[in-house]
Specification:
- Helix content is about 70%, strand content about 0%.
- It is mainly alpha-helical.
- The chain has a two-stranded antiparallel sheet with strand order 1-2.
- It is globular and about 45 Å long.
- About 30% of the residues are buried.
Length: about 210
């Protein structure tokens, strides 16, 4: 494991801890897209079915369990204890298009034509666009609290670091090629482009995240 992969994983973990802390401290899920959280839960469920079929390492196993458990916990919080603070009208992105698109790509361009590999490919394609309901909700409100902004930044930063991880592996490992992950990762990072710009020009300067009028 290289420094880019490790830092990316830590940033991914950090994003989840930030979100859970935000939900628990404020007792509100206002500004958070439940649709995005459900998509992430589906991503982890379809990607980590191999958890029960083989062992890679303790690190790998613990990370898979954490992502599955934390994603389920976040969805539970938003569906049950914090349901009253959820604004369904703002969380209106049509996720069926994302699900359908990811399913089609997984069937046409899978890693391999086996059930597990098709599901893995589906999870990669879906993760690339899972943040879209959250970003769409932020564009509708025009702003977000700083903790939510830090959460979204950590998610985008994790994937950007994975791109550096792939570049490093390409030049240091023999025969390393993963076009599905590469293309999906580039698309996913590109979706954060406008958010990154506002985050760096406003939030890091102590201002509130706010879209230009």
């Amino acid at each position: 494991m290289n420094i880019f992969r490790l830092t990316g994983d830590l940033l991914h973990l950090g994003s989840i801890f930030i979100l859970i802390a935000r939900l628990q401290q404020t007792k509100s899920c206002a500004g958070i897209s439940l649709k995005t959280q459900c998509l992430y839960l589906l991503v982890f469920v379809t990607r980590y079915l191999d958890l029960f079929l083989g062992f890679v390492s303790v690190y790998n196993t613990l990370m898979k369990i954490f992502f599955l458990a934390s994603a389920g916990y976040i969805v539970y919080l938003m569906y049950s204890p914090l349901k009253a603070s959820y604004d369904k009208a703002l969380d209106s992105f049509r996720v069926e298009f994302l699900l359908g698109g990811a399913a089609v790509f997984a069937l046409v361009f899978p890693h391999k034509y086996t059930v597990l590999e098709i599901l893995w490919s589906f999870s990669i394609y879906l993760e690339a666009v899972a943040i879209m309901p959250q970003l769409f909700q932020m564009t509708r409100t025009g702003e977000a609290d700083n903790i939510t902004s830090h959460y979204v930044f950590a998610l985008g930063g994790y994937r950007a670091l994975y791109i550096l991880n792939w570049v490093y592996r390409y030049y240091t490992e023999d025969d390393y090629v993963d076009y599905i992950a590469w293309i999906a990762g580039i698309v996913q990072t590109a979706l954060f482009g406008d958010f990154f710009y506002i985050y760096f020009t406003r939030v890091l300067k102590g201002k509130t995240f706010k879209l230009p009028v």
